[in-house]
Amino acid sequence: MNAVRLSERGNPAARGPIRVLVVDDSALVRQLMTQLLEEDPGIRVVGSAADPYIARDKIKQLDPDVLTLDVEMPRMDGLTFLRNLMRLRPMPVVMVSTLTERGAQVTLDALALGAVDFIAKPKLDVARGLTEYAGLLIEKIKQAAKARVVAPAPVRAGETIATPPVAYRTTHRLIAIGASTGGTEAIREVLSQMPADAPATVIAQHIPGAFSAPFADRLDRHSRMTVIHVERDQELLPGHAYVAPGGRHLRVYRSGARWHCRLGDDDPVRRHRPSVDALFDSVAEHVGANASAALLTGMGDDGARGLLALRKAGAATIAQDEASSVVWGMPGAAVALGAAQETVPLSLVAQKLLAGTAHE
């Protein structure tokens, strides 16, 4: 997977506050987002646009560092605009999407086309909803400004893929994967290389509740494994991948000779639910040396301590490398803790998870 480094068009930090262009057809949303973002001295909203045609001209005039883009736009839909933008002038884009099934599908398509991240806005009482998300929006803008902008995938959004699987013979093992920013596409790439008989795989991706089921459906279309959006406690079976639902923790436990997963509504861990640390800690406790785990791209440090617990328990532990990560926060934190036995590019993560060559 190719990546465009921001240094090629200048380091935003060297230019002072992060320059943001807000693109949304709602005048109220444009006004609110401008006010909320400019409360942070590290961000400057240089302009706004009501549709992609106006945005195109303002990008040329204002040279923003980050773009916020509504998924549903007049005159030209957000996906078409994003596809053209990533082809002609790659730059960090944070999608602003609605908490609906349609909004989730379009947002996942946008992430496949190269958008860095997204934030959800409610259909009703948008003003209150955006105000409540102000801190998260500011954090996502700052992370996006430092992110690596991934070039568009070789397949069109919504199409299936045919990546050759890594050879594997089923054994009594379990794989755990955690990710955040950039993770929806990173996980898709990893699963696309898994064979149909891969070990049971549990996945914690930071994602809103309305988005996790469409995310699991997308993974299922791109994988030889059967991908399940977990909605109840169940046995973990080889050849199946289990995605934590947004807003609920996913944990693994042993029942006799078999592994099961259960959902939890307890407090967020490191501000997240599902939390990668919650998942990894349970795998370390109940699976131990029979596990392989990978911490992929994402902001923050969720999963780093869990990966360390896994390493101490004898599991094979892997961190995605900085060059292939959209944001090297979570895997970078794991590397700093000494939690990762290997740090590899995304293209090798599936191979390392299956091979278990990181065991000492």
UniProtKB/TrEMBL annotation:
InterPro entries: CheB-like, CheB_C, CheY-like_superfamily, Sig_transdc_resp-reg_Me-estase, Sig_transdc_resp-reg_receiver. It is found in: Cytoplasm. Phosphorylated by CheA. Phosphorylation of the N-terminal regulatory domain activates the methylesterase activity. GO terms for biological process: chemotaxis. GO terms for molecular function: phosphorelay response regulator activity; protein-glutamate methylesterase activity; protein-glutamine glutaminase activity. One of its GO terms (cellular component) is cytoplasm. Gene3D superfamilies: 3.40.50.2300, Methylesterase CheB, C-terminal domain (3.40.50.180). The keyword Coiled coil does not apply. Its EC number is 3.1.1.61, 3.5.1.44. Its main location: cytoplasm. It catalyses: L-glutaminyl-[protein] + H2O = L-glutamyl-[protein] + NH4(+); [protein]-L-glutamate 5-O-methyl ester + H2O = L-glutamyl-[protein] + methanol + H(+). Residues 168-360 form the CheB-type methylesterase domain. Pfam families: CheB_methylest, Response_reg. The active site is at residues 180, 206, 302. It comes from the Bacteria. Residues 19-136 form the Response regulatory domain. The modification 4-aspartylphosphate is found at residue 70. Keywords: Chemotaxis, Cytoplasm, Hydrolase, Phosphoprotein. Belongs to the CheB family. Involved in chemotaxis. Part of a chemotaxis signal transduction system that modulates chemotaxis in response to various stimuli. Catalyzes the demethylation of specific methylglutamate residues introduced into the chemoreceptors (methyl-accepting chemotaxis proteins or MCP) by CheR. Also mediates the irreversible deamidation of specific glutamine residues to glutamic acid. Contains a C-terminal catalytic domain, and an N-terminal region which modulates catalytic activity. This is Protein-glutamate methylesterase/protein-glutamine glutaminase.
